[in-house]
Every structure is written in C-alpha cells, then in structure tokens.
C-alpha cells in the first residue's frame, strides 16, 4: 500500500510539474503582436512586429466614421425575434471577443430603459448601437421615425443591425407587435427596402468590391438585406442578389440623415465577424479603398509606407493572420 501511495504521489507530482512548466512557458513566451501607424491625408508610415510567424495586411480607406463607444442592447424582459435570448447572448459575447482582437474595448451592454436614455439624449460623437434581437424595444421604437432610435441615428448616430427585418417589429415587454405596414417607406423612403425571402448569393458587390475583399468580408446571406439600388446613400460591402428590378446586399451601409445604418440579416458566425470588422474599422457608406499592402513576418518587425494623392478622414487597419485574424488595430488621421 505504501508503494502504491508513493507511486501515486510521484505521478501526481510529475503531472503537476508538467502543468506548471507549460503554464510558465506560456506566460514567459506568449505570442506577441504589435502595430503602429502614423496617418496623414496623403499617406501612412506603419510598423508591425511579432515574436511569432504571421502574415499581415495593411489597408487604407477614406471617409471613415470612427466608433468610440458601442452600446449593445440585451434585455431578457423584452421579446426577441428569430433568435432566443440564449443564442443572442452567445452572439454578443463572441462579438465582444472579436472586437477585442481588433483593439476595440469600449463596450457596454444596455437594457431597454438604458437604451431609451441613450437615444433620448443628445447624440455624442462616436457613439454607436448594436441590435441583435431582431426587434426593437417599445422604449425606442413603436413604428415612428421622428423620435426614438431613428431620430438619434438621423442626428449622427451609428446603428448596427443583425437579425430579422429592421423596423418590422417592436417588443412591448414580452409581446411582439407589428410596425405599420409602411415601415420600409417610413424608414428608408422606398416601399421595397428590405429583402424578405431567404437568399444566399455568390455575387460579390462591384461597388464596394475592393474594400470588401480587403476587409475579408465573406458573409453572403442576403435575407433581410437592404435594397442598395433604391435606398439613397447605400453601399454594398457584401454579396448581392439581383431580383430583376432591385439589388439587395448581405452587408450594407446606408446614410441616414447625419448618421449611418448597417444591416446584416442573419445571426451567425460570419455576420458576427463582419459586424466586428465594420465597427472596429469605422468604414462608412462613402468609404473607398485607397491603398493596401501585405507581407509576412518571422519573429521580427517590418516597416512600410503607403501613399495616395489626397483623402479625408482616413482609416488604416493593420491586420495579422489570414484567414483567421489574431490581431488587428485601426488608426485614423487627425
């Protein structure tokens, strides 16, 4: 018995030492990534470094609208549509992780009453709201666009939407109610503003193709996507479906007064990643790709310069790891 106990003690000790060694090795020599960019109206000087082996991409675009603070709506006391609260919370948690990888950390989850407080106050530059419930709470929307959340967007806010048709429904507590049948016209100024039938597309948008490919936007579910051919100031950064009379997009950005609305119609891994990319980079409906460069590193650093003739509100993202991003940072011109 003594020998068995001694053997067990030795086994446990060896196992503990292995775990300790792995832990020390991990914390002593973790993978490290770093990047910096000095952005002006006519170019960018950048540096990247790592103690690992990784590919990197540097992309520059104009007319950026940087997001400073993101409010994410979640309220178990209000109904959701085409999703459960559990799935919604998982999507939100995973999106926050994706944002952190890209250097964006100023995130706050808010309930229906807190969301009302945000949209009823004066718009703060850089504020954005993410809705993943497929339905807005009645505190900020009951079918009207001259007050509540759409008034807030009109004054300059950024609204990122993932889920069921934007504006079609609202939640009065746990009850879901229909918005007026004219909701698409009321919000976007066109009767056929949202694709209501299920469509998956393989046709990438031509208008935003350069920026879309540079950002590696692969989400192609057009369902509940916006009609970018009819909505004024709309840009497709995803995949398009041509219905014969209208063109709908899987990833769209639309100007809305002084603000912007981004729409993706289904809650899944691809839309989560695409949403994080749009928020972290602050691309807008008028953004265009103005420069890109890529390379690879093996335990070292690299520096480079990209120039362009002239641009305003320039954004530059430095991304490491393709196709799976392990690190990204976005820098903006002063």
Task: Give structural notes.
This protein has 334 residues and is α/β, with parallel strands linked by helices. The protein has 3 domains: 30 residues; 75 residues, Immunoglobulin-like; 177 residues, no CATH class. Helix content is 25%, strand content 33%. It has 7 helices and 18 strands. The strands form 4 sheets. Strands 4-3-5-7-15-14-11 form a 7-stranded mixed sheet. Strands 1, 2, 16, 17 and 18 form a 5-stranded antiparallel sheet that branches. A 3-stranded mixed sheet has the order 6-8-9, with no helix packed on it. Helix 2 crosses helix 7. The N and C termini lie far apart (74 Å). The relative contact order is 0.21. The N terminus is likely disordered.
Runs in which pLDDT lies below 50 for 5 or more consecutive residues are 1-29
Q: What is the count of structural domains?
A: 3
Radius of gyration: 23 Å
Oligomeric state: single chain
Q: What sort of overall outline do the alpha carbons produce when their principal axes are compared?
A: globular
Question: What is the topology?
Answer:
Layout lengths: L1 H27 L4 E7 L3 E19 L7 E5 L11 H17 L5 E4 L1 H8 L7 E5 L4 E2 L11 H6 L3 E5 L6 E4 L2 E4 L4 H6 L14 E2 L4 H6 L19 E3 L2 E4 L4 E3 L2 E5 L2 E6 L4 H13 L7 E19 L7 E6 L6 E6 L2
Parallel strand pairs: 3-4, 3-5, 5-7, 6-8, 7-15
Antiparallel strand pairs: 1-2, 2-16, 2-17, 8-9, 10-12, 11-14, 12-13, 14-15, 17-18
């Amino acid at each position: 018995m003594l020998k068995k106990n001694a053997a067990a003690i030795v086994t446990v000790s060896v196992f503990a030492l292995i775990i300790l060694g792995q832990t020390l090795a991990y914390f002593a020599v973790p993978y490290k990534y770093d990047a910096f960019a000095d952005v002006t109206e006519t170019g960018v000087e950048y540096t990247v470094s790592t103690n690992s082996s990784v590919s990197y991409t540097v992309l520059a675009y104009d007319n950026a609208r940087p997001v400073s603070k993101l409010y994410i709506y979640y309220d178990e006391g209000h109904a959701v549509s085409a999703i459960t609260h559990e799935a919604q919370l998982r999507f939100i948690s995973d999106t926050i992780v994706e944002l952190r990888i890209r250097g964006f950390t100023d995130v706050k989850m808010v309930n229906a009453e807190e969301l009302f407080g945000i949209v009823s106050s004066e718009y703060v530059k850089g504020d954005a709201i993410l809705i993943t419930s497929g339905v807005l709470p009645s505190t900020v929307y009951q079918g009207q666009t001259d007050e509540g959340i759409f008034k807030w967007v009109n004054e300059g806010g950024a609204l990122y939407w993932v889920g069921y048709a934007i504006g079609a429904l609202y939640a009065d507590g746990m009850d879901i109610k229909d918005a007026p049948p004219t909701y698409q016209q009321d919000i976007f100024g066109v009767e056929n503003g949202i694709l209501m039938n299920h469509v998956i597309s393989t046709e990438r948008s031509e208008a935003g193709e350069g920026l879309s490919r540079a950002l590696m936007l692969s989400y192609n579910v057009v369902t509940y996507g916006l009609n970018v051919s009819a909505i004024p100031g709309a840009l497709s950064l995803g995949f398009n479906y041509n219905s014969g009379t209208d063109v709908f997009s899987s990833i769209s950005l639309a100007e809305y007064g002084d603000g912007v609305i981004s729409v993706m119609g289904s809650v899944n891994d691809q839309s989560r990643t695409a949403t994080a990319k749009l928020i972290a980079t602050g691309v807008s409906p008028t953004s265009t790709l103005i420069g890109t460069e890529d390379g690879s590193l093996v335990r070292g650093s690299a520096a480079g310069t990209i120039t362009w003739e002239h641009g305003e509100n320039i954004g530059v993202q430095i991304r490491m790891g393709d196709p799976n991003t392990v690190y990204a940072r976005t820098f903006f011109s002063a």
